[in-house]
Design brief:
The chain has helices at 14-26, 31-44, 87-97, 105-114, 126-138, 145-149, 226-231, 234-243, 248-262, 264-267, and strands at residues 6-10, 64-69, 75-81, 102-104, 172-178, 184-190, 211-214, 218-224, 272-278, 283-287, 293-298, 304-307, 309-310. The chain has 312 residues and is an alpha+beta fold. The strands form 2 sheets. Strands 4-3-2-6-5-1-11-12 form an 8-stranded mixed sheet. Strands 7-8-9-10-13 form a 5-stranded mixed sheet. Bound molecules: N-hydroxy-L-asparagine. N-hydroxy-L-asparagine (SD4) is lined by residues 148, 170-172, 190, 192-193, 202-204, 223-226. This is Asparaginase.
Length: 312
């Protein structure tokens, strides 16, 4: 018998994504549709951290990375996409209507426009504008650990994800769903690391790094310093650990340990968090630094935020 439905999303802002995914799953709908709804909801939320409301690159442009993967290992991804509100939906369109899996930059935007997506203004959200001006004063190019690991204070359900000092506690949302038919799908969407180098792409749109789904075994997504995740093909690794018998939490822990082992000293300076679900509907997470969390929705349809265990 199928274990679903269940939906999990990274971070406490996962409450917003899960609330949009749940009605699809509750009605017996497809996990793929559920995770796309999760993406649309969070990309629409101007108070959150991903989508066009996110922080820009160091030249002042918001550039989006996203991907989606279904139960048949179909996948679609876009990166360095500008002025399009729903990158995950563009990725899905690419997956379903072309022989390709990955489009970037101007080509991705051209594909989106040809498929009826609207060109948005490109103006920064008021919060992002403020943050960018603040950043420009020093214009320091270094990925900031604090953005990732500071505990979000006072976040009730649907509270803004900006911290009191204006930072986000993250810039990426990943959602994994198991539907009533027992099928898995996932998505990952991001504005990427704030004030990144122009053209920089992280792990989030990279299949096997920011997201991986294997319908026989399970699925995983990640958040944090994308470069570290790409180096170990992080979410593919998590799914392979599950294939070899690890629980979702153990699998996430082993992937974190693989990253830390490379340079334990340096690992003190960045955050990576993995989130996973297996075919039985068991879920788990693990991160390098404290402060990572995820939201799970199942049974009663209420999103529950759970703090991840961490290496440090
Ligand atoms: C990236 N993984 O672009 C993303 C950033 C992130 O929470 O997860 N922020 O590297």
């Amino acid at each position: 018998p199928a274990a679903g439905p269940v939906v999990i999303s990274t971070w406490d802002s996962g409450q917003i994504s899960n609330a949009a995914a749940w009605p699809v799953l509750e009605k017996g709908g497809r996990a793929l549709d559920a995770v796309e709804q999760a993406a649309i909801a969070i990309e629409n939320d101007i108070n959150c951290c991903v989508g066009l409301g996110g922080n820009p690159d160091r030249d002042g442009h918001v550039t989006l990375d996203a991907c989606i993967m279904d139960e048949k290992s179909n996948c679609g991804a876009v990166a360095f996409l500008e002025r399009i509100k729903h990158p995950v939906s563009v990725a899905r369109k690419l997956m379903e209507t072309t022989p390709h899996v990955f489009l970037v930059g101007a080509g991705a935007q051209q594909f989106a426009l040809a498929n009826g997506f609207k060109l948005e203004s490109g103006k920064l959200s008021p919060d992002a504008e403020k943050e960018y001006k603040k950043w420009l004063k020093k214009a320091e190019y270094k990925p900031v650990i604090n953005i990732e690991h500071k505990q979000s204070k006072g976040h009730g359900p649907f509270a803004p994800t900006r911290l009191d000092n204006g930072d986000f506690n993250h810039d990426t949302m990943g959602t994994l769903a198991l539907d009533a038919q027992g099928n898995l799908s996932g998505m990952c969407t991001t504005s990427g690391m704030g004030f990144k180098m122009r053209g920089r792409v992280g792990d989030s749109p990279v299949i096997g790094a920011g997201l991986f789904v294997d319908n026989e075994i399970g699925a995983a997504t990640s958040s944090g310093q994308g470069e570290e995740v790409i180096r170990v093909a992080g979410t593919h690794l998590v799914v392979e650990f599950m294939r070899n018998g690890s629980s979702p939490e153990e699998a996430c822990k082993k992937a974190v340990e693989r990253i830390v082992k490379r340079d334990p000293e340096r690992a003190k300076t960045f955050q990576v968090g993995f989130l996973a679900i297996n075919k039985q509907g068991e879920v788990g997470a693990y991160s390098v630094q404290p402060g990572f969390a995820y939201t799970i929705t199942t049974g009663d349809g209420k999103g529950k935020v759970i703090a991840s265990k961490s290496y440090l």
